[in-house]
Write a structure and sequence with these properties.
alpha+beta, Phosphorylase Kinase, domain 1, Transferase(Phosphotransferase), domain 1, 3 domains, two-stranded antiparallel ribbon, 19 helices, 17 strands, Ankyrin_rpt-contain_sf, Ser/Thr_Kinases-Pseudokinases, Protein kinase domain-containing protein
């Protein structure tokens, strides 16, 4: 009898069985693939590299349908990120799906390995189908046919926001601006959509729905805007807090532009509310009563304390991104520029936590220079990529100044002809101008000044700020009526300036 381990029968003239060679090769290949899966799970980059050089199948799967990339992406071993780099270098399938519907990106997010998440996103991961599957599992996948689009209520350089009806409820729909015409066209031509704006329909009468040609540059910008919107959906879908505008779902249909839906905030944003109050009262500056300023500030601080636990930095906190309910409760919105930071942080030389350095194999996070709105942008955002969640505290301090004084931050510079660009230039040159906290209520001055401290490490955390505000609230006796303050060089009648806060009048 022939024995594959005993060559003697062959030497004596017996013929070699070719089937045994095939079985041996298959067995060896199968064994190599199992070793690759094991090495990937263990974060053993050197062993994984050797096995791939020996032609182990980079996309082989275990009994659960998981590839080596799945196992490395979901691993917590020190070498996991290096293994992922090696596998992606060998063209591993970045969008492979296991038997329970998980992708390598899902695995990385499950263990909160943001470095691997970044690598996958840079190597062909398609976010939309992943989000669509997540939406189906979590029951927030919506159909565009369920929405009746109403009037536009806001827009930015990249996106447009519409009021809409959803099963009898007023909601808000956000999409990228470049896709707005596509949505309108489809809503006009499909019986499954209902567009209530006759003017919008008339505008599109002569626009063929098929004509969507654009230059390569426009296509690249459109892709970047779509990706940003998808990342905002990814972030919003995982956040639930009473002080954040409620995310209701997203439309991720293949033949429609991406849209997401949030609750409708009938009183609009804080900036326009303050404008409206100035107009109604015919005053140059309007400041809400002290108790309301404190309550609004506490709501924003609660939202930031929640976000910073993940940790997520908002990076564009400003009155336009604070929305008001019918009862004038405030909520934080617009996470288009928000950043999910790496969990692992290390101390910098000056003792401040520096967990926002450029991306490396240690899982640190690359921050973007100059993100945010000029008036509320912390100086360190202009100067360096080494900034953290304290940029949100700085912005909140400026918002508190606005609410307490009735004057926009740095108005004293702007009235002298300097604009936001000049302000950023001063920051870039190492200057640190600040508003005059003496124009705020005396109970808030110290807290505001701590919030915009020059050194980010000296600013309070959101939790500390919330605790301080709670103390201020307890010191505020009762709730006066809805009376704001007239703040200017002179009162409307020409007398000395007075600030109304609580039941007291303070002469400036």
């Amino acid at each position: 009898m022939e024995n594959r381990d005993n060559p003697l029968p062959i030497l004596l003239g017996a013929k070699k069985n070719p089937d045994l060679d095939v079985l041996t090769k298959v067995s060896d290949q199968d064994f190599s693939e199992k070793l690759l899966l094991s090495a990937s799970a263990a974060g053993d980059a050197a062993h994984a590299q050797r096995l791939l050089l020996q032609k182990a199948n980079v996309d082989s799967k275990d009994h659960g349908g998981r590839t080596a990339l799945h196992l490395a992406s979901g691993g917590t071993a020190r070498g996991a990120e290096e293994v992922v780099k090696i596998l992606l270098g060998q063209r591993a399938l970045a969008n492979a799906v296991d038997h329970v519907g998980m992708t390598p990106l899902d695995m990385a997010m499950l263990v909160q390995n943001w470095g691997i998440k970044k690598l996958l996103e840079q190597n062909g991961v398609e976010l939309q189908p992943i989000l669509k599957r997540k939406a189906q599992e979590s029951s927030w996948l919506l159909k565009a046919s369920e929405l009746k689009l109403r009037r536009e209520i806001g827009h930015t350089l990249k996106s447009v926001v519409h009021l809409a009806d959803w099963h009898g409820t007023k909601v808000v729909v956000k999409c990228i601006k470049m896709k707005r015409r596509v949505i309108m066209n489809k809503m006009k031509r499909s019986k499954s959509f209902d567009l209530s704006l006759a003017s919008e329909l008339h505008e599109l009468d002569d626009v063929p729905v098929e004509k969507e040609d654009c230059s390569p540059e426009e296509a690249e910008i459109e892709h970047m805007c779509s990706e940003e919107l998808l990342r905002e959906i990814e972030l919003l879908s995982s956040l639930r807090h009473p002080d954040l505008v409620l995310f209701l779902g997203a439309c991720l249909e293949n033949d429609m532009p991406v849209m997401f839906v949030t609750e409708y905030m009938p009183e609009g944003d804080l900036e326009h509310y303050l404008y409206k109050m100035r107009d109604e009262r015919q005053v140059p500056h309007y400041a809400p009563p002290l108790w309301r300023t404190i309550e609004w500030s506490m709501a924003v601080a609660r939202a930031l304390a929640f976000l910073h636990k993940f940790p997520v930095i908002h990076r564009d906190l400003k009155p336009l991104n604070l929305l008001l309910t019918k009862t004038l409760e405030i909520k934080v919105t617009d996470f288009g520029t928000s950043k999910l930071m790496a969990k692992a942080a290390r101390d910098s030389e000056d003792g401040s936590v520096d967990n926002d350095l450029k991306h490396s194999t240690k899982g640190e996070t690359q921050m973007t220079l100059g993100v945010g709105t000029y008036n509320y942008m912390a100086p360190e955002v202009v100067r360096t990529k080494k900034y953290d969640e304290k940029v949100d505290i700085y912005a909140l301090a400026l918002i508190m100044f606005y609410l307490s004084s009735g004057k926009r931050p740095f108005y004293h510079l702007f009235v002298r002809g300097q604009g936001p660009a000049e302000l950023l230039e001063r920051f870039a040159h190492g200057e640190d101008p600040r508003p005059d906290a003496r124009q705020c209520h005396r109970r808030l001055r110290g807290l505001i000044e701590r919030g915009w401290a020059v050194k980010a490490s000296e600013r309070p955390s959101a939790k500390e700020l919330l605790e301080d505000l709670e103390e201020k609230k307890n010191l505020t006796l009762g709730r006066p009526g809805e009376h704001g303050a007239v703040i200017s060089g002179r009162s409307p009648k020409g007398g000395p300036t007075m600030t109304h806060s609580g039941s007291a009048l303070f002469l400036r």
